[in-house]
Amino acid sequence: MTETAIEAAALGRKFGRHRKVALDDCSFRLPAGRVCAVVGPNGAGKSTLLSLAAGLLRPTDGTITILGTTPAAARERLAYVAQDKPLHPQLTVADTLRLGRELNPRRWDARVAERIVAEGDLTADAKIRTLSGGQRTRVALALALGKRPELLLLDEPMADLDPLARHQLMAALMADAAEHGTTVVMSSHVVAELDGACDHLLLLGAGRIRLAGPLDDLLAAHRLVTGRADDSLDPHTVVESRTTGRQLTALVRPDGPLGDGWQTTAPTLEELVLAHLRAPEAPALRLDSAREAAV
Ligand SMILES: Nc1ncnc2c1ncn2[C@@H]1O[C@H](COP(=O)(O)OP(=O)(O)OP(=O)(O)O)[C@@H](O)[C@H]1O
């Protein structure tokens, strides 16, 4: 198995006659076997990045290497579930899984595909067009996992699932990925559902990387601090700060010990992400290479 699942070097994608920039100068490395969350505001470039990784789009700048090769050459070894979950509406659930097996004769894992469908109480002879959005998601995930991919790319996979189905499918996905060492890259707006599931983070904003690296390292590089509004936070990097009366609360990247006047706690994933979303101008931080590198 390849050590690096995705390597992007100065990756960029522009669209249309006006060369609208969707992704710009993105460099990061995702080691194999990780579960990576891709987060960022609407239009940040998350779907564009996943489509480039899946080989459905070509870069207009830079390169993206998947499982040590090009996305096209890695196609058999990856599975991609797009935001709109395209499936054949006229096929039944059973036909859809049969097609999955025929298209992936060497790798198809019928057991996992059938289990995911069965857990959703879906009848095998139901036509795809009669299924709800959430039921279709389940079939799309069954198809993707049945392919037994080394890299699973999921674009907002849980968006139309009810909370119970979301919880159950997420657990099934994580258990399967852990059992097989699958690399999972999953975009989502629901940061709470990523907590505990992901061990790597990619935060995009306006087409650029804002945070990239192992989640524990990114969390450890930040502190939530509270103190007096007139105390200085120099020389630390302040990602975001808010003042209520005389009290200041801030997310900082400490540069050495914080002074005695500051109460500090470790941020949660949600606090880390929200602070960066509220402060789009905060400097980026990449901790995904051997050496720490600011981007
Ligand atoms: N086919 C396209 N043609 C033109 N512009 C596009 C195309 N696809 C994406 N874009 C633009 O690229 C930018 C990034 O879009 P993308 O869909 O990757 O964002 P996203 O982070 O997935 O957003 P969301 O959270 O809303 O799904 C947006 O400004 C979008 O308008």
UniProtKB/TrEMBL annotation:
<protein>
    <submittedName>
        <fullName>ABC transporter ATP-binding protein</fullName>
    </submittedName>
</protein>
<dbReference type="InterPro" id="IPR003593">
    <property type="entry name" value="AAA+_ATPase"/>
</dbReference>
<keyword id="KW-0547">Nucleotide-binding</keyword>
<dbReference type="GO" id="GO:0016887">
    <property type="term" value="F:ATP hydrolysis activity"/>
</dbReference>
<feature type="domain" description="ABC transporter">
    <location>
        <begin position="6"/>
        <end position="231"/>
    </location>
</feature>
<dbReference type="InterPro" id="IPR003439">
    <property type="entry name" value="ABC_transporter-like_ATP-bd"/>
</dbReference>
<dbReference type="InterPro" id="IPR027417">
    <property type="entry name" value="P-loop_NTPase"/>
</dbReference>
<dbReference type="InterPro" id="IPR017871">
    <property type="entry name" value="ABC_transporter-like_CS"/>
</dbReference>
<dbReference type="Pfam" id="PF00005">
    <property type="entry name" value="ABC_tran"/>
</dbReference>
<keyword id="KW-0813">Transport</keyword>
<keyword id="KW-0067">ATP-binding</keyword>
<dbReference type="InterPro" id="IPR051782">
    <property type="entry name" value="ABC_Transporter_VariousFunc"/>
</dbReference>
<dbReference type="GO" id="GO:0005524">
    <property type="term" value="F:ATP binding"/>
</dbReference>
